[in-house]
Amino acid sequence: MVDIESDGPIPGDYSMICFGAVLVDEKLDRTFYGALKPISERFDPTALSISGFSREETLEFDDPKTVMNDFKVWIEENSKGKPVFISDNNGFDWMFICWYFHHFIGENPFGYSSRRLADLYCGMEKDTFAKWKHLRKTVHTHNPVDDAMGNAEVLLMMKNEMDLKISLK
To answer: Which GO terms describe its molecular function (predicted)?
Structure first.
């Protein structure tokens, strides 16, 4: 489960500021956090404010290539088989993670597809408007590890209580 925060609407022109990942298993105790130095002079102050960081703080963050390499290693060490990218808003989160992986290390360990948590839940409920965010246990704080954790808790609940067939390898 992955969540990102950015300083604008698209990768390349704007920057991914930080992201978090949680390996979805019964323990939910393996996490990754990356804070990335901006790659562009452009930023939207309103978008950046959601992350809770100032522009000056982000300029001190880590080199994006190093962070993406570290994330790739974490994925390899914490998953078996092909990892599956799942997020609350995969249209947004995926676009940044995929772009950063390809731009900085030339490959994306998740491949070319992703899953959206809300779509899985709505499909199980047979209701395209089903509400699910109240099922999170961890409060949604815009710290990407917290947000990924809350979403991972929902996915795990869907597996354990709604019989979602998902391999937790």
So the answer is: nucleic acid binding
Q: Does residue 38 contact residue 100 with C-beta atoms inside 8 Å?
A: no
Per-residue pLDDT tens, the chain, 169 aa: give them.
Answer: 999 999 999 999 999 999 999 999 999 999 999 999 999 999 999 999 999 999 999 999 999 999 999 999 999 999 888 999 999 999 999 999 999 999 999 999 999 999 999 999 999 999 999 999 999 999 999 999 999 999 999 999 999 999 998 877 6
Domain count, the chain: 1
Residue tagged active-site, from 103, 134, 140, 142: 142
102 is annotated as an active-site residue: no
Residue 169 maps to a domain: no
CB 53 within 8 A of CB 2: no
Are 8 and 133 contacting, i.e. CB atoms less than 8 angstroms apart? no
